[in-house]
Amino acid sequence: MTVSTEQHEGNRFAHLPLSTSGAQETTLTGNALLRTPYFNKGSAFTEERDVFKLYGLSRPNDLAKNTFMTSLKEQNEVLYYRLILDHLKEMFSIIYTPTEGDAIADYSRLFRRPEGCFLNIDDLDHVEDDLDQCGEAEDIDLIVVSDGEQILGIGDQGVSAILISVAKLFIYTLCAGIHPSRTLPVVLDCGTNIATTQRRTLLGQRKARVQGEEYDSFFEKFLSACRKRYPKAYIHFEDFGLNNARRILDRYTPKITCFNDYVQGTGCVTLAAIMAAFKVSGTKWDEARFIMFGSGSAGTGIADHIKDAISQNTCKTREEAAVQIWCVDKSGPLLNGKKDQLTPAQLLYARDDKEWEGKEHGDLLSVVKEVKPHALIGTSTKPGAFSEDVVREMAENVELSVIFPLSNPTRLHEAKPQDLYDCTDGKVLVATGSPFPPVKHNGQEYDISECNNSVTFPGIGLGAVLSRTRLMTPAMLVTAVQALASEAPVLKGSGAGLLPDVEDVCDISVKIARNVMNKAVENNMAQEKKIPDNDKDLEEWIREKMWNAQYRPLKVVDKSIANPHARGEAGVAAWQREAKRTA
Asked: Residues annotated in the binding site, as ranges?
């Protein structure tokens, strides 16, 4: 319904008492006006904002805005998503990082009602039943699960991690049209290693985090229940700790369709930026040398994707490709002589100690001098690690340096983009882990691309969901990356960016999903039948299946033929189905 605020011009009785036309009189302004129901127009005030001092009367901080948006979503999903889509750049940091981190840290205080599925490590007998209450077998396309051990920037948050699962699903819907009522956020409550004094105020388990065999049994119980109840669901692992993230991914990738954004998503978006950079610089994949400074889950995940890309772009095996990558931590290159201190992911990139006998290798500068890399990538969280000496040394040996300081947040970046341009006299291609303003150098302005996972993982998930792929293979991820890299502004003549803007993410997700689905069919992984076999038809087919934030006409149907969605029992209202079942 449209509410008109226009005056009724020409009404000859408008001057009479109780007239309902013309302007209303009021003495109220500001908050007093907003709190008077018969005067308040909500978001419909126009030029009156200045007259009645309504400017600036928004929520006082980003966390308050995040809380308001959560309330809006519970009332009207279409309006929630439309508002964000129409103001994506402004709203992205409110509903996702970094503000979502504040909401997670404050979850136990702000808690209003549960959203998603909470599974308790001390209550294994109820795992299946808890998941069963969230929908029928055909209701769920996508599950995001976290155990909350390593929420980016704020560490172990226990059961509060349900909000990172929720936020990730928001991004899937916003950026790839995954239907919001066909998703399920899950948190695995295994306790928390947060300080004992703080545990007393937390929701969920108020004990030290459980690890080892008990943890593994719980995780296996969860996945078995998912496969039993939702056999077609794509499962996204989010913010697991260093000891579990890669180990779990490696264990279950050959068994189910799964994905870890911190390991794989970061790797994919970084690889896309590298692909675009190499096309500009003319660097050949069989000759390229890479230094990964920071060898945790993100660093080794990026290295894995680089290794796969080298293998697919050359005749080299993945083992041969790994030789072109030097993973470095604060003490120098990863070496076999210290293998008892390395994770399984790091062992894949450990070098023979003899390579460095008699050579300086105790810091990054000495390694750069020896390796002469074409690409230097930072995930170290060591601010300023890409010093002027390091950058100048790199620029001495390659015509166009590729340097990506990716650590988050901004204060932990290995280098500032402006400094990289100044040190190399502009002979550098840069992507960062956080947003930066354009750089000015020699009278020109250069866009700095952000390696934002949100331009990557939604499209990959969309392709997996629509193809019903049995597994997520390395080849499918590489082809997804190729779709993203091909949209780089620097390659399309529309700017200097190595990655497309997040505002274009819906169109990009279609192209990524197309490539993933084509590869799934080619590899005999797709379970969906009658997938179009040409790109034009396939993209149209994909768009038709993407949920849009727009109001659609409603049609009454009989309960006997209605599905849970038609009965209003999907998504956040799934509890109604169980209530009826047990009544």
From this structure: 238-239, 408, 452
C-alpha 188/C-alpha 204 separation (Å) is 10
Distance CA(145)–CA(164), nearest Å, equals 9
Domain with CATH 3.40.50.720 in the chain: 264-451
Please check whether residue 388 is in contact with residue 423, taking contact to mean a CB–CB distance below 8 angstroms.
yes
Binding-site positions for a divalent metal cation read: 238-239
Pick the catalytic residue from 73, 80, 168, 519: 168
For 403, half-sphere exposure in the C-beta direction (CA atoms, 13 angstrom radius) is 31
Instruction: Determine what percent of the chain is predicted with pLDDT higher than 70.
Output: 93
Task: Give every CB contact of residue 510 below 8 A, 6+ residues apart in sequence.
Answer: 459, 462, 539, 542, 543, 546
Q: Out of 73, 80, 81, 96, which one is annotated catalytic? A: 96
* Structure confidence at residue 199 (pLDDT): 63
Told to judge if 41 belongs to the known catalytic residues of this protein, a careful annotator would answer no
On the CB side of 213, CA atoms within 13 Å amount to: 0
- The CATH number assigned to the domain with range 264-451 reads 3.40.50.720
| Domain boundaries 62-240, CATH class | alpha beta
Q: Which residue has the higher pLDDT, 2 or 301?
A: 301
Annotated binding site for (S)-malate: 408, 452
Indicate the helix (H) or strand (E) that contains 167: helix 162-176
Catalytic residue flag (residue 96) = yes
Residues of the chain with CATH 3.40.50.10380: 62-240
